[in-house]
Amino acid sequence: MAGLTLFYHPLSSYCWKVLIALYENETPFTPYQVDHDRPESVAALREAWAMERFPVLRDDNRGVTLPETSVIIEYLSIHYPGRFAPIPTGADDVMEARLMDRLFDTVVMTGMQTVVFNTLRPADAKDDYGAYQARALLKKAYAMLEARIAGRTWAAGDAFTLADCAAMPSLWYADRIVPFRSDHPALADYLARLEERPSVRRVLAEAEPYFAMFPG
Ligand SMILES: N[C@@H](CCC(=O)N[C@@H](CS)C(=O)NCC(=O)O)C(=O)O
Predict the structure, then answer these.
(1) Is the CB of 68 under 6 A from ligand 1?
(2) I need a surface site. Which of 22, 67, 106, 108 has the fewest CB within 10 A?
(3) Which of 157, 120, 115 has the alpha carbon at shortest distance from 138?
């Protein structure tokens, strides 16, 4: 097979992050959906990336297979550039975009996933204190982000970047776990701006048939 293949699932938050980058540039790729009730798709993901996490990008043009969303998005910007430049050029802007990307992944996404995965655990293996701590972490993150995002159009300033690709799925799902829109106006406006983006509308429309699977 030639070209780009993305191992993904339409409901997966980290897959949204890469899909947004691909859709921003209208980069051609073949989606390969991984479903746990299709063992052959899970085996294909495992063969691509031993950690069995998605998304994974396979580039048959260059013989490269990549995990990790931030790395995939940067790789796309280098080898398949378009009008969307996820990594800013100015030194300060680069730092801010990378910092915000890390905060959305490691704080917001991790907090959200901890609560969601706890609901999926067997009854005798739940970690309710861990979920309580994750909810508290999300509230702390909302206050920090509310102050940081105020006065900005996008997460790292005036341009839509890698940080916004990370922000959208993490904030969108976190809001379903610990709602923030009524008491964090700057963050709420920011998420509304993200939702208006055509790339994001497309991601949401493609995920919509699967929303009933989300346990939150
Ligand atoms: N740091 C990774 C996180 C990827 C990740 O956690 N993906 C989730 C789906 S949203 C996954 O594959 N979970 C399955 C598992 O952990 O077994 C990235 O940025 O790509």
Answers:
(1) yes
(2) 106
(3) 115
Check: CB of residue 54 under 8 Å from CB of residue 45: yes
- Dist CA 20 CA 147 (whole Å): 25
Per-residue pLDDT of 105-164, as tens digits, reads 999 999 999 999 999 999 999 999 999 999 999 999 999 999 999 999 999 989 999 999
d(CA 149, CA 187): 7
User: Where are the domain boundaries for CATH 3.40.30.10 in the chain?
Assistant: 4-79
Q: Say whether pTM exceeds 0.85.
A: yes
Mutation to probe ligand 1, out of 17, 33, 49, 54 (largest number of atoms < 8 A from CB): 54
Dihedral (CA of 19, 20, 23, 27) sign: negative
Alpha helices in the chain (DSSP H): 13-24, 39-48, 69-79, 91-103, 110-120, 128-149, 162-177, 185-196, 198-207
CATH code for the domain defined by 91-197: 1.20.1050.10
Evaluate whether 41 touches 33 at the Cβ level (below 8 Å).
Answer: yes
